[in-house]
Amino acid sequence: MDRCDVIVVGGGLAGLVAAAELADRGKQVVILDQEPENFLGGQAFWSLGGLFMVDTPEQRRMGIRDSRKLALSDWMGSAQFDREEDYWPRQWAQAYVDFAADEMRPWLHAMGMRWFPVVGWAERGGAFADGHGNSVPRFHLTWGVGPGTIAPFVRRVLAHAKAGRISLKFRHRCSHIITENRAVKGVSGEILVEDAKERGQSTSREIAGQFELRAASVLVTSGGIGGDFDLVRKAWPRDRLGEPPREMIAGVPAHVDGRMIAIAQAAGGRVINADRMWHYTEGVKNWDPIWPNHGIRILPGPSSMWLDAEGNRLKPPCMPGFDTLSTLKAILATGHDYSWFVMTQKILKKEVALSGSEQNPDFAAKSWLKVIRHRLLNRQATPAVEAFKRHGEDFVVADSLEDLVEGMNRKGGGLIDLERLRAQIVARDSQIDNPFTKDAQLMAVHAARNYRGDRLMRTARPHRFLDPANGPLIAVKLNIITRKTLGGFETDLNGQVLNAQGERIEGLFAAGEVSGFGGGGYHGYNALEGSFLGGCIFSGRQAGRSEAIA
Question: What percent of the chain is helix, strand and coil (3-state, nearest 5)?
Fold first, then answer.
């Protein structure tokens, strides 16, 4: 298929959704991807499969009262749109919340997707009602996690491929978007040598040949920049967050390299909000890595004490699971690029989860028996968490505070003062005797336990850290871990890319992370979680259904 209607550059979630929708309309589609066939689905495969949805049966069964109005208020309070170029991001944000509150769940449900019944409460904010954060739990964990999220779209794409409507061209790296008379007419690039690596590993960039394909429309769905630390540092918002960390770990595979951004810019596309990004502060080095500098994010419950590198407790809203960017800014302001969780075994067991499909085999296998055994009837944390506790270089386990501090100082450069840390823990423990407290974090713990989902699965009963019955004590050194690009190519609601003059570029479209998940950054400054996969699905669908695509 040397000529087709649409070329989709990138076989990740957004590209799969768009290609399936385009082929449903009878379009001839070619999907190009620089990686091997077993990488189909891209970065989404490795995700936890969380989706931001609003007023769902899952929420209502958990006693959660949600609405489009409340969700939009939360979204806009978090986005904090304040730029002239936020016109299209704002339109996309409103359109996504409409979708998430209406058609999203029944559409996905009809394709076979299902969700774990306990809705997660991510990114809780911790400040004012009109500011950043989710007022209610909205994180719907897909049964099957990342693989379960991409499965319906992989199935649809492969069915179209069998029928001859979609052609899949792996190891095809786009390096040029062909334009003629200010209109996009196709792409050219290199055919890379076959490289049968396991999914997620770095593959060869050796060139075996060249290719050129012609089409009336090109849709770029190539993802973000999180796998390239140099690009992350170049775009880093120093005015808002300070200097970028000297050391980071990678929350995405190396193929999330951002190379298509410059290529689409050369074709006239305008990138906006490139300084808006979303990196996590709770990263640990993977003791069994798949890609270079492989990091795993801890998904924390609210009870761990969060300390900076020098052992000082972080101030609200810098509490576990509350305000990612405020915490990132606070950590970097110390002059260090890491921080610490201090917790007990009881907290580890109940509250510490790990992001990533491979770290959650019970959810990935859709095994109720394993979920109940590993998360409800368990005497320890999940097997994956316990493996990190045993093997992870960032974990310190000790029966006494003295031994804990000694281990922390071995890993962190000797910055923790034993008596200073003891005083902070004793003060915190003094607030445990009754349900009343002046400690903001313990207030948050009590509030979390008012939600039966948190009380059941994600928030430990308040207890004293220094009571040996609750031990051992555990400290976790937390690294900055790269993840998402919030800005990207400015697009209209059809996914059509705009140029520097605000004009639509004929034949050029973008979806997914490369478009800031819609419009050039529909998150604004902050994400509410579940809105990355959700944004890939929504922006891919918008482009795939667009009548603007020839």
Answer: 35, 25, 40
